């Protein structure tokens, strides 16, 4: 299995356009610290790739990843579809950027489908431009091949019913299965190796523990270093957990849980307030001592 990390930042990116915090200013001064919105490319088969989450950076992310470049015919793209872990704007606005596609297949849950393809989001807006089709992600009990010829099998691990802010008051649609946020479990049947991708994680359900227990690689929500970070930095009145993101550090942090796993574990979806966006921050040593990593834009992971 081949994975390419297309971006590792939470909503806003690093730097965020309207922010002069130390981390955003640091990324302006040191362009190598810049991070695009969190996204992952998964190779289904030779020349066929899926992108997990369509971010506002998707066109630049495609350009920076040669495997995703079109060709040899002028309008042939290796991008077979977009998998959505949730309906947040930082994971779905890029669908509008892909409107030049003849058709675009989205793999996700019923709740996310209703939000993205419904009236309140992109469905009506994009219908004159492209044909958005939808395919339901199988759940962890019955993984399915990503693509007809693919040895990579995929399943969704439902994590929570946390809705994006724009959908908080929208009545449940006919397809709403309550699965607003999922982790993905990807297994290559040719190698037997498994990756779990969970860029939005507000709770740690038993199903997730089960999904990561025998995984070879786990790429997880690293939005905030500690639970108080959003309040301390003034970006929110809520804690990290209340915002739907378990912190990395602390008694209920994800680092302790990840450190006990045999998998290679990397953090992604870093908010621009997270000290980890500064490569000189002491928090990196804490993670290194625990055997954990921070994912980098452009990273290639072969399993
Ligand atoms: C999140 O990850 O919690 C959301 O993307 C926040 C947002 O609305 O940008
Ligand atoms: Mn986000
Ligand atoms: Zn900032």
Q: What report would you give on this structure?
A:
The protein has 303 residues and is of the alpha/beta class. The chain has a single domain, classed as Metallo-beta-lactamase, Chain A. Helix content is 19%, strand content 25%. The protein contains 10 helices and 14 strands. It has helices spanning 22-29, 58-63, 89-92, 94-97, 110-117, 123-126, 206-213, 229-232, 254-259, 283-289, and strands at residues 2-7, 39-45, 48-52, 79-83, 103-108, 131-136, 144-145, 152-160, 181-188, 193-198, 217-221, 264-268, 293-294, 300-302. The strands form 2 sheets. Strands 6-5-4-3-2-1-14 form a 7-stranded mixed β-sheet. A 7-stranded mixed β-sheet has the order 7-8-9-10-11-12-13. A hairpin with a 4-residue loop joins β9 (181-188) and β10. The mean pLDDT is 96. Bound molecules: D-malate, manganese (II) ion and zinc ion (ZN).
List keywords for this structure.
Metallo-beta-lactamase, Chain A, binds D-malate, binds manganese (II) ion, single chain, 303 residues, globular
- Spatially, the strands of the biggest sheet line up as 6-5-4-3-2-1-14
CATH superfamily: Ribonuclease Z/Hydroxyacylglutathione hydrolase-like
Structural class: alpha/beta
Number of domains: 1
Mean of pLDDT: 96
Global morphology: globular
Total DSSP E strands: 14
Q: CATH class, please?
A: Alpha Beta
Strand content: 15-25%
Stated plainly, the CATH topology is called: Metallo-beta-lactamase, Chain A
Task: List the total number of helices.
Answer: 10
Taking pLDDT < 50 over at least 5 consecutive residues as the criterion, the unreliable ranges are none
Span from first to last CA?
5 Å
Helix content: 10-25%
Determine Rg (CA atoms, Å). 18 Å
* Helix-strand string: EHEEHEHHEHHEEEEEHEHHEHEE
CATH architecture label = 4-Layer Sandwich
